[in-house]
Design goal:
Helix content is 35%, strand content 31%. With 258 residues, it is an alpha/beta fold. It has 2 domains: 137 residues, Rossmann fold; 107 residues, LytTr DNA-binding domain (OB fold (Dihydrolipoamide Acetyltransferase, E2P)). The strands form 5 sheets. The protein has a 5-stranded parallel β-sheet, sandwiched between helices. Strands 12-11-10-14-13 form a 5-stranded antiparallel β-sheet, with no helix packed on it. Strands 15-16-17 form a 3-stranded antiparallel β-sheet. It is elongated and about 75 Å long.
């Protein structure tokens, strides 16, 4: 039977020693290597050595965090994070199907992680497991950004959920932002256009000027305007001309054609 190779990256020596002893007690046949808990030294070790089967990786390293290490080293190992993060962060990480040991680590936690590793490697093709792990690492290093999908709107009698997909455009007036739905109904929002620009999916919404953000599905026509600007017509219509400046016109056309 092939000897399992494990590695530990941990910047606190007592914690690394304790984890090593716990793994030895549970799997005495494993070969365990402790790597200095810095991004630079860990990357160097992975560049010069065969990657272990399983890596116990501390989130916080002495010169950065483990995500910098993942991006540079691209370890072809099954990864178990060791972290002092709270439960909310833990749940977010678990969405990527990697296991975690929440500090202080218990023997039961560690044993569960080892069993998951063994079950996964026993039922998966090695190359498929490596490819899956690399995809997971990429999702952590460069996570898919989530964009806003709804707003909670408060009225005098109730609160409703306004879906972003039902909004034709946003506009700002007298320091108040309004969302205009496809049916023409207006809702005041407690948010600025600048913040909205960052929270909305750029494939669907474009900041045409300082006053308006339009949804691509609401645009019915664009026409040239004075000084190389563009005038945008929407349905429902806005009460004023929606103008795209000369500086943003080229980017706007690219966005419409993407």
């Amino acid at each position: 039977m092939r000897t399992i190779k494990a590695a530990i990256i941990e910047d606190e020596i007592p914690a690394a020693r304790m984890l090593t002893n716990m793994i030895h007690a549970l799997r005495p046949q494993w070969e365990i290597t402790t790597i200095a808990g810095s991004v630079e030294e860990s990357v160097e070790w992975f560049n010069e050595n065969e990657h272990p089967d399983i890596l116990f990786l501390d989130i916080h390293l002495s010169d950065g965090n483990s995500f910098s290490f993942l991006e540079e080293a691209q370890p072809q190992s099954m990864i178990v994070f060791t972290t002092a993060y709270d439960e909310y962060a833990l749940q977010a990480f678990k969405a990527n199907s990697i296991d975690y040991l929440l500090k202080p680590i218990s023997k039961e936690q560690l044993n569960d992680s080892i069993l998951k590793f063994e079950q996964r490697t026993a039922t998966s093709n090695h190359e498929e497991s490596k490819a899956e792990m690399m995809e997971i690492i990429q999702n952590i290093v460069q996570p898919t950004k989530r964009y806003r999908t709804r707003f909670l709107i408060h009225t005098s009698t109730a609160s409703i959920s306004l879906l972003v997909k039902d909004i034709a455009f946003f506009y700002s007036e007298h320091k108040t932002c309004f969302a205009v739905t496809n049916s023409g109904k207006e809702h005041p929002l407690n948010i600025s256009l600048d913040k909205l620009t960052a929270e909305l999916d750029p494939d669907s919404f474009f900041r045409t000027n300082r006053q308006t953000i339009v949804c691509i599905n609401a645009i019915t026509k664009i026409e040239p305007y004075f000084l190389n600007r563009i005038v945008v017509t929407t349905q429902p219509p806005f009460k004023e001309k929606i103008l795209v400046s000369k500086e943003r016109a080229s980017k706007f056309k690219q966005w419409l054609n993407f």
